[in-house]
Amino acid sequence: MTETANGEAQPRLLKVTRDDQAKWYVADLSDYYSGKYPYVWLRDNCQCSQCYNKECLQRETLTADMDPEVLPASESVVDDGRALEVVWPDQHRSSYRADWLDCQRFSESQIDPISHPEYQVWGAEMNGNIPTFDYASILSTDKVLYEWLRVLQTTGIALVQRAPKEKGVCRQLAERVAFFRRTIYGEEWQVESKPNVSSLGYTSKYLVLHTDLPYYISPPEVQLLHCIEQAKGKGGENQFVDGWNIVRQLKAEHPEAYKLLSGVPIDYKNAATDQYPFHMKASRPIIDYDLRGELCMRYNDPIRAPYMLMPVEKVTEMYKAIKLFNQVIYRPQNLVHHRLTEGEMVTFNNRRLLHGRSSFEVQAGSSRLLEGGYIDWDEVRSRTRVLREKLYGIKRL
Ligand code: OGA
Ligand code: ZN
Ligand code: ZN
């Protein structure tokens, strides 16, 4: 390794050996990292202007043209270990920079922590300890924005404090990241007790622990909830529970219930009129996992459909399992309570956490007003990677 002007270690190719049996090079990139680079993969990822478009950063070679059995004609390490040059049987020449090779990893152990965050599982000890961020600092300082987004990925919940007590705050934050996830309720929405409502959320009633919008095949991922006006009387507190903690306890204590809850789809339906008439339906297990293996809880009693498209023999067992699930989510050791103050926001992973609200008193001349919105992980992660590169110079993967 050598150092750049800013003190960062620069990988160099110390040694490159052929393994024609396995059809890869073994390249020692430093004293501690030795990578395997399959021949066909190298040919596919040739960086020359014929094979790779440097303007739009996209590949122009076609997989259909690759020979998986290809053996390079020759190779050499050049520029004092900074590049590997390969000549192919058709005399095509490729050059691969050592720092580029260092960024390409096949092994699981090198997985990007932003794509696969390490979860910090929590319970009641989070009461009074929810990570907090300052609203103005998130808007002004990239490092604070980066840290807030990382906490959302690892802890799954964060408070954002000292925001103005007015509409538009969720939008400011969403646009600081990227943009809102639009749903049937629009981009941002208000939770307020009002007459003729399309959701129980819009009353002053108690809201049981739930996830939002489980009737979407892909429910929104990060939720922002900003308190513009809190109930003047009693109530209006929020509750949160960490789904990973619930899964852990259910698996250990009620494996049969866990099997039903994670294996048998439950039907959700929401047919009403908000900004326009809608009729949404999805049928997925309460404890669901997405394509990345991440938790996607779908639990929302008020909008569970009356029909249950499961074998009728399973219905009674399913009720038992859901009751056990409720016992676990409401254990005091698992619950976190927080009453938002005016100007405060709670931001959380809507697929991992369940959230609820206690009922509140509506006093004449005042109301309780929250504004909310969603952002999806793809946007959050993309922004986090861009910030990581900008702040820390880390380009890997
Ligand atoms: C909802 C909701 C929270 C609150 O409407 O889905 O979770 O505090 N509201 O009103
Ligand atoms: Zn090429
Ligand atoms: Zn909700």
UniProtKB/TrEMBL annotation:
<dbReference type="InterPro" id="IPR003819">
    <property type="entry name" value="TauD/TfdA-like"/>
</dbReference>
<feature type="domain" description="TauD/TfdA-like">
    <location>
        <begin position="122"/>
        <end position="373"/>
    </location>
</feature>
<dbReference type="GO" id="GO:0005739">
    <property type="term" value="C:mitochondrion"/>
</dbReference>
<keyword id="KW-0124">Carnitine biosynthesis</keyword>
<dbReference type="InterPro" id="IPR050411">
    <property type="entry name" value="AlphaKG_dependent_hydroxylases"/>
</dbReference>
<protein>
    <recommendedName>
        <fullName>Gamma-butyrobetaine dioxygenase</fullName>
    </recommendedName>
</protein>
<comment type="similarity">
    <text>Belongs to the gamma-BBH/TMLD family.</text>
</comment>
<keyword id="KW-0560">Oxidoreductase</keyword>
<dbReference type="InterPro" id="IPR010376">
    <property type="entry name" value="GBBH-like_N"/>
</dbReference>
<dbReference type="InterPro" id="IPR038492">
    <property type="entry name" value="GBBH-like_N_sf"/>
</dbReference>
<feature type="domain" description="Gamma-butyrobetaine hydroxylase-like N-terminal">
    <location>
        <begin position="34"/>
        <end position="101"/>
    </location>
</feature>
<dbReference type="InterPro" id="IPR042098">
    <property type="entry name" value="TauD-like_sf"/>
</dbReference>
<dbReference type="GO" id="GO:0045329">
    <property type="term" value="P:carnitine biosynthetic process"/>
</dbReference>
<dbReference type="Pfam" id="PF02668">
    <property type="entry name" value="TauD"/>
</dbReference>
<keyword id="KW-0223">Dioxygenase</keyword>
<dbReference type="GO" id="GO:0008336">
    <property type="term" value="F:gamma-butyrobetaine dioxygenase activity"/>
</dbReference>
<keyword id="KW-0408">Iron</keyword>
<keyword id="KW-0479">Metal-binding</keyword>
<comment type="pathway">
    <text>Amine and polyamine biosynthesis; carnitine biosynthesis.</text>
</comment>
<dbReference type="GO" id="GO:0046872">
    <property type="term" value="F:metal ion binding"/>
</dbReference>
<dbReference type="Pfam" id="PF06155">
    <property type="entry name" value="GBBH-like_N"/>
</dbReference>
